[in-house]
Specification:
mainly alpha, 434 Repressor (Amino-terminal Domain), 5 helices, 43% helix, 0% strand, DNA-binding transcription factor activity, DNA binding, DNA-binding, TransReg_Diox_bact_type, Cro/C1-type_HTH
Amino acid sequence: MAEIVRPFPPADDTPPEPGGPGQEPLWREALGECLRRLRTERGEILVETARRAGVSPQYLSEMERGVKEPSSEMIAAVAGALDVTLADLTLAVATTLLGAPVGAPVGAPVSAPVSAPAGPTAYALAA
């Protein structure tokens, strides 16, 4: 498996755990947090969203927990089921990662938190 290279290696030269303390969150973890936040803000249970996206509830759960590296097709399907565009979801994940301090757990407050969708395809970022 490929080695993950981080811009700031740990001071004690021990190999860090990806996404662990002192490391920035992984993209798949930030994606999962955004998906779960959107789903719960809509008041939906996992099974409802999974059904509309055409994925199994187990797979969606694994996406939300950041344990799966979903394909772009799967991400687009879940985004569509949550009434957001793939571009807006990607922007929200990137904004979350840019605002996350190194070592912060995924879902920790950032400078631009994601809010609920404003419309069928609009994805608002709160200031």
